[in-house]
Automatic annotation (TrEMBL):
Belongs to the binding-protein-dependent transport system permease family. FecCD subfamily. It is found in: Cell membrane. InterPro entries: ABC_BtuC-like, ABC_transptr_permease_BtuC. This is Iron complex transport system permease protein. It is a multi-pass membrane protein. The keyword Transport applies. The chain crosses the membrane at residues 61-81, 88-106, 112-132, 144-168, 188-210, 231-253, 303-320. Keywords: Cell membrane, Membrane, Transmembrane, Transmembrane helix, Transport. It comes from Marinobacter persicus. One of its GO terms (molecular function) is transmembrane transporter activity. One of its GO terms (cellular component) is plasma membrane.
Amino acid sequence: MTRPIGVPLVILALASLLAIGLSVAIGSVALTLTDLGAVLFGDAPALHRTLVLELRLPRTLAAFATGGLLAVAGALMQVLLRNPLADPYVLGLSGGAAVGALLAMLAGLGGLLVSGSAFAGALLSTLMVFGLAHGTGSWTPSRLLLTGVVVAAGWGAVITLMLSISPARELPGMLYWLMGDVSYARTPWPGLVLLTLICLVVIPLGRSLNVLARGPLQAAALGISVRPMEWLIYLLASLLTATAVTMAGSIGFVGLVVPHMLRLVLGNDQRLILPACAFAGGTLLVLADTLARVVIAPEQLPVGVITALLGVPTFLYLLYRSR
């Protein structure tokens, strides 16, 4: 890897490690670097080991995986739709996942069954959008975008109906899930493994993605198989988004703001942008989750609230800068 590409990634990787360490150390029981070192080397008290290894570290890694998944999905969606303001939720994936999860909650299910239902809902939404946008001909980015907006609006209506008829005792958990919450994500490893695998898959395709971002005609003229590449990008972005929603619920603005900010700083080389999104998105969500845990301690805020409060002014500023 050349120096211009490697240096930003090293900086972002160090920032990620710093954010993870900060998240693990901060909480109702503050831990020092000495305490964390003792936990890593097995010399810590049982309380500290339980606090770090069973509570804080899984949650922190889940937040990092979720943020990285959303940011990489956002970068892929922006290449697919050739729109720097595209978002991984724009095609209704989060709406389908939310409906699946809420149905599982209403049925009295929990744990992995809720996650599985959310994943099934996201995949169903993917098939619906792709099928409706294709119709009897071929889909275009604008047609795919419009279809996704309509499907997302339909899922929103279904969610509102479900909340209206749900028993009062079920509403707090359902609303918390809809706002985005990583406090129940205790198995971060599938998300981390998927994030790593996707980055390893798409980085070799970075040159082709750079060409595709300039338009299908130029890509076809330069020997790129446009349609299979677009299918691959869409399926990968859908898988990333569905996994993120399954882990932590609906968390907005990460997939929109992170790729856009990185492009302003690092340029448009997808070989750099995609791994940078994995680090930067994960770091952003780890810091947001840390803030959500401590800002009104001992109560906790949904991390989706923090990302929205940070994302809205940031997005408006970026929009103003790029007008």
